Automatic annotation (TrEMBL):
Keywords assigned by UniProt, alphabetized: Hydrolase, Signal
Record domain Beta-lactamase-related: where: 36-340
Keyword Signal: yes
Protein's name in the database: Serine hydrolase
Organism of origin: Flavihumibacter stibioxidans
Lineage: Bacteria, Pseudomonadati, Bacteroidota, Chitinophagia, Chitinophagales
Methyltransferase found in the keyword field: no
């Protein structure tokens, strides 16, 4: 009888708690909706997909707007977007995977792999990973327009910018740099003997179960593709066409919100890297003068209301992206947009701040 009474009390407590939990989730979802629709409010135009996950599982996942304006097709939560510079996360992890295999070291000078690179004896892989190399960013070169639609090999891309004057000596300052991540992709190819595309596909996407992720293409048929747009005075127009061999390992990957959560979970579960190597990825480093800067290997290391976060955004013709992870709470928030007129950056940060505060308040109650 005593055990029966305990069971009844637990049953009553569970029956009481379940509606509260459901009401809490609905209220949180409504608040997230409100943040998103402040900006993503054109139901007849391009839009975005947003996901919030807690402890590796989605608690919010919705699509807003159209995937294709010509056909009037709605975006769905599993649409495939171009990631832009979130690609750098995959490039950085690939480098650390090769280091764990003993095939390179982040302290290696790049001249060990590219002997004719100017000052290659002083610029290290670490400098490339942390945007402290001083190499000229190719996206700031006016001559970029001359090659924007050409099919370039990684070596051709490196040759395109390698003889440009440097902006500063290696390690002197942090300056976000796409050229450094193109060099990293080239080094991945030289060391692994595989193309960058194949290396990421075989060693990361396949291993993490990211079945809808890939190297970008405008020619191949990609099921559930979100088409990219610009907004002009006349209205929305199709995105500018570029060769994806140009951004290469600095910005040419595609994925879905579901696959990006698999990516985050693979990192947390050390599926790709050991805990020691993962710590290197998310450590803060110092400049030559001893000053600490807030970028690890492929992630900005920031905070939300004083709580450490790992963040990165991306932008490529027709698309913008933003991901925020809060390690202490295991909260992951991702925003993907198919118009470069709709940046999900602040929206994603605002959602992360809301969800963080919400879970903190729930614990206090």
């Amino acid at each position: 009888m005593k055990h029966l009474n305990q069971f009844n009390r637990l049953l009553i407590l569970f029956t009481f708690f379940l509606p509260l939990t459901s009401a809490y989730s609905q209220n949180l979802a409504h608040k997230i909706d409100s943040i998103i629709t402040t900006q993503f409010n054109d139901t007849s135009g391009p839009g975005g997909v947003f996901m919030v996950a807690k402890k590796g599982k989605p608690i919010y996942h919705k699509a807003f707007g159209k995937a294709n304006l010509e056909w009037g097709t709605k975006l769905n939560p599993d649409a495939v977007f171009q990631l832009g510079s979130i690609t750098k996360q995959f490039t950085a992890i690939a480098i650390l995977m090769l280091e764990e295999e003993g095939r390179l070291k982040v302290t290696d000078p790049i001249g060990r792999y590219i002997p004719d690179y100017p000052a290659g004896d002083r610029i290290t892989i670490h400098h490339l990973l942390t945007h402290t190399s001083g190499i000229r960013d190719f996206t700031k070169m006016q001559s970029l327009r001359d090659i924007a639609q050409k099919e370039m090999t990684p070596k051709m891309m490196v040759d395109f910018f390698k003889n440009e004057p440097v902006d500063f000596a290696p390690g002197e300052k942090f300056d976000y740099n796409n050229s450094g991540y193109v060099l990293l992709g080239y080094i991945i190819e030289l060391v692994s003997g595989e193309s960058y595309e194949d290396y990421i596909q075989h060693h990361i996407f396949s291993k993490a179960g990211m079945n809808q992720s890939r190297y970008a293409s405008d020619r191949q048929i990609i099921p559930n593709r979100a088409y990219g747009y610009h907004q002009k005075e006349i209205g929305y127009v199709n995105k500018t066409t570029i060769s994806y061999s140009i951004p290469f390992s600095s910005g040419s990957l595609m994925s879905t919100a579901t696959d990006m959560l698999k990516w985050q979970n693979a990192l947390n579960q050390h599926l790709l890297l050991s805990s020691a190597a993962t710590k290197k990825v998310f450590s803060q480093y110092k400049l030559n003068n001893g000053e600490t800067f807030t970028y690890g290997y492929g992630w900005h290391l920031r905070d939300i209301n004083g709580i450490p976060s790992r963040e990165h955004g991306g932008s490529i013709f027709g698309f913008k992206s933003m991901g925020v992870y809060i390690p202490s709470e295991d909260i992951y928030v991702l925003g993907l947009s198919n118009c470069d007129c709709l940046s999900p950056t602040q929206t994603t940060k605002d959602i992360a701040a809301l969800v963080l505060a919400s879970f903190q308040e729930q614990r206090r109650d």
